Structures are given as C-alpha cells and as structure tokens.
Amino acid sequence: MLRTPTHSIADRFWQVAAIFIAAMVLLPLGAIIWIAFTPTGEVWGHLLRTVLPGAVQTTVLLMLGVGLTTGVTGVLTAWLVTMCNFPGRKIVDWALLVPLAVPTYIVAFAYVEVLDYTGPVQSLIRDIFGFQTSRDYWFPEIRSLGGAIFVMGAVLYPYVYLTARASFLIQSSSTLDVSRTLGASPYGLFFRIALPLARPAIAIGVSLALMECLNDIGAVTFFGVKTLTFSVYDTWLNRSSLGGAAQLALAMLAMVFLLLWLERFGRRKQRFDSGGGSKHRPPTRFDLRGGKSALALSLCLLPIIAGFVVPGLLLADRASRRLDGVLSSNFIQIVWNSFSLASLAAFLTVLISVSLAYALRLNGKGPLKLAVRLASIGYAIPGTVLAIGILIPLAGFDNFLDARMEAWFGINTGLLLLGSGTGLVYAYVVRFLAVSYGQVEGGFGRITPHLDMAARTLGRNSGQTLAQVHLPILKPVLLSAALLSFVDCMKELPATILLRPFNFETLATTVFEAASREAFEEAALPSLAIVLVGLIPVIYLANSSASTFRTKLSARQAEAAG
Questions:
Q1: Interval 131-165: pLDDT, tens
Q2: Which of 72, 371, 479, 515 is at a distance of 20 to 30 A from 23, taking alpha carbons?
Q3: How many CB atoms lie within 10 A of CB 396?
Q4: How many CB atoms lie within 10 A of CB 230?
Q5: Whole-structure pTM over 0.85, yes or no?
Q6: What DSSP line would sit under 72-127, residue for residue?
Q7: Could you give the CA distance from residue 154 to residue 303 in angstroms, rounded to a whole number?
Q8: How would DSSP label each residue in 291-320?
Q9: What is the DSSP string of 218-259?
Q10: How do residues 457-487 score in pLDDT, each as one tens digit?
C-alpha cells in the first residue's frame, strides 16, 4: 500500500525511537569496555594473579552444581506431574512454582539461621545426643559452596520445571502412544523419546537459572563464596578500584556470552514438530499406586519444602516478633521507596517494550531488527556489571552538568541523576526489558495485520492505530508484563545496592544489610513483604503456565539472538 507522507514520518519516528533505545541499552556495555581498557597501573596484573583464577573456578563450580541441581529437579518433577497420575498431583502441579516468589538471598539467610551452629537444627542435635561443641559431631557446613548450590537449586529449579513441563505437554501424544505400543517402558519412554524432544526447552530453562545464579550477590555473600559477582562488588567497594571492577565485569560478560553460545550450540538443529495441530491431545498418564504413588508425591514435595516452606515458616515466625514495626515510619518509607521505584521502572519498561514491538511490526527488516534484538540483551547482563556500566556515564554527565551550572549560574546541582535514583530506574529498565518485551511481542503477534490495514484505509497514521486499535486489545498483556517487571524490580539486589542514592533503602537492601549483620529478626519483616509481593506473579504463572512458557521462551530467544 502506498503510504502518505504523514504515515512515513510517523513510521520513521518509531524506527528512530527503537534505535535510540538500543543505543541506551548498549551504553553501559560500552562504558565497561572503555574503562576496562583504560590504564589502571598494576591493578589488572594483581587481579589476574590473585583474584580472577579463584573467582572463575568458584563461579564455574557453582554454575555446574546449580545447573545439575535445577536440571534434575525441574525435569523430574515436570515429568511426574505431566505423565503420571497420583494423589495430590494437581496441587503440586502449581505448588512447584512457589519457590519463584522467594529471592535467593532471602532463602540463603533463612537457611543460615536454621542450619548454622546456633540454629535450631544443630541445637536440637546437641540436646538429644549431649554434644558440647561442634567438634563432637559432624554436620554439613551451610556457609560453603555446597550450601550455595543447595539454596540456589531449591529456588531456581522452577525455571526448568516451567519449560520442561510445557515441552512435555505439547509433545505429540501419538508418538508416545506408538512407543508404548512397541513395548517402551516408562523409563525408556522418558530417556529415549520425551527427554530428547524436550532438550531445547530444558536448555532454555537451565540457562535462565544460570543467569540468575551468575547475577546473585546476596546468597554468595552470606555463604562466603567468592564468585566473580562477589569479586566485582568487593573490588569496587572494599578496594576502591572502579577500573579493576570494570575489568572483572568484562570477564563476567565473557562468561555470559559463552553461556549464551553454549546454550545455542547445545540446541542447534533441535527443531521438532509436535505433531499437534488441531488433533493434539494431552498425553496419556501412567497411573501410579501404592509405594510408587507415595514416592512420586514425595519427590514433588521435597523441592517445595526446601525452596518455600522452610524459609517461609522461618520468616513468618521471625516477622511475628516484629509486627510492631509494620506501622513504623521507617518501614513505611522503605516500602514506599521500593514500590515507587519498581512502579516507575515497570511503567517505563512496558512503554519501551510497546515502542520496540510496534516499530518491529511496522518494519521488521535490516538495522531495526538488529536494534530490537540488541535492546533485549539486558536480562543476560548481571546487575553488578550493569551497575558499573551505568555509573560511569551518569556520573560523568552529573559532574559535567554541575560544573557548567556552577560556572554559568552559581548553582550546585550535585549528582542530579545518580542522587535522584534515575540511575537505579535506568538499571531496572535495561535489565528487565527482555521479559516485558517477550510478552508484548507475543501480544502483537496475535493481532492480525488486517486491523492495521483497515485503520490505515480509514486514514489513521501509525500512532493513532496503536492508540485506538492495538492498545485496547493488548491491555491484559500489558498488565501482566508490568506485573512481572514490577516484581523483578522489587527483588533486584545487586544493582540496587550499588546504584541507590545515599541514605536510600529499599526492601531488598534492608534485608541484605540486616542479614549481613546477622540481625535475622530485623530482616524477617521486609523479607516477608518481598515474598508476599513475589507470590502475585506465581499465582499468575500457575493459572497460565503454558502461555508463560512461550513468553519466557520469547524473552530468552530475544536475549540470546544474534
């Protein structure tokens, strides 16, 4: 269709906006590369000899352990609830998602409180057996690499569970039935048919879990595990070397992109037809009875208990002792800080996602398509790395503006952007844009292009078509995208610690600082508030897990594309 000049100008606006957004997302990466290659004396040599080898080794071991734990737990539970009938199956089907509501740093400090030497478990053991000191008996050390793997595996396995479960559900029941007819046992059906078909989805779920593992700063700090993320944090704040932190951050980025490449390599040529179409039907389940039924239910309950019930009960108990603090002005201010920042970031994230998806809908070719893909890579960047990349350009702008205003008008503006929380909102938007964009893009994909053509025929330009046609249809999608972005921002810890203004606390930073001082009762109330907020998207996921799988898959593919 021949476009009018008005239409061309409007369309070009969306394209320019998409390219500008991509540039703003890439700005932190460019800043990290720039400062990493700026001469820093002997800092890099010292880090290369004393910090980097151990940090890389610890990070790799942690990721291997978490990947194995989340993979086995997620796939096993997904197979049981999808392919087996046993009492309680419908309950554990959605309950297996609830650990997603609890951030890893909250579960970490909860297990330190439960399993440490002074905790209730070891105290009970000493009381029962009459032990006097820790040298009288052996107990696994929770503040260790093994403890970090256990905690992260207990919290992050739902990523694999979601993707594997959705993959098992859409596999052709005809293929599985034919395999049964040919004599395949349940074990043979799983290992020889279902598992190979689900490999691409499992790879995506494991990679999502590993991204969260690499991003973590709270759990590894509590457990004393010196990963690359911890080393960046320590080098920046404790050693006062921003250049050294940027160089370590560059090493983390290399590991991130290696992980993305390994994921794509691992699922290369893995394209399967589910054989569903209009004749697709759910798979026929195995009926489990007696001991097998009890075993299946137990295997599904264990990760729920470890990832949610134990920390949840501890938080409820400790928070009940501090209920008088709910109405305190300090706690209300902290809640407001978290709510306002997360709300603003969620609004901007959805707004930008709509702009990107609509620009791609108008013209999905050439540089624009590349720009949209680049704008979606923020989810792959750990919060600590992102914070360094944002601090450098924003601090430079603040200092430049302050000098000019002082020289021209005698006004001292100080750290206008960093001191107002703008840098923190910027970090939230860049980091969680991919999740929001995946939902919005999927929503646009379900709107027929004939509506656009009809609107253009009636004289509407691209902006009017978006406002009058698309946005009313997309309201449910935009709401869910905003909800998921809001909760992710509420839980984000690494970027919040490093970019928050002075004397500015959120729920996440309050939990981290109180737990760092081992003031567990003080941390319980804000922790419980985060968990309660985190349950909102879990309820949403439980009601629409299949559509959520497609959203996460779209976000993950957008993040890893190119």
A1: 888 888 888 888 999 999 999 999 999 989 988 88
A2: 479
A3: 11
A4: 21
A5: no
A6: HHHHHHHHHHHHEE-TTHHHHHHHTTGGGGS-HHHHHHHHHHHHSTTSHHHHHHHH
A7: 6
A8: HHHHHHHHHHHHHHIIIIIHHHHHHHHHHH
A9: HHHHHHT---HHHHHHHHHHTS--HHHHHHHHHHHHHHHHHH
A10: 887 777 788 888 888 888 888 887 888 888 8
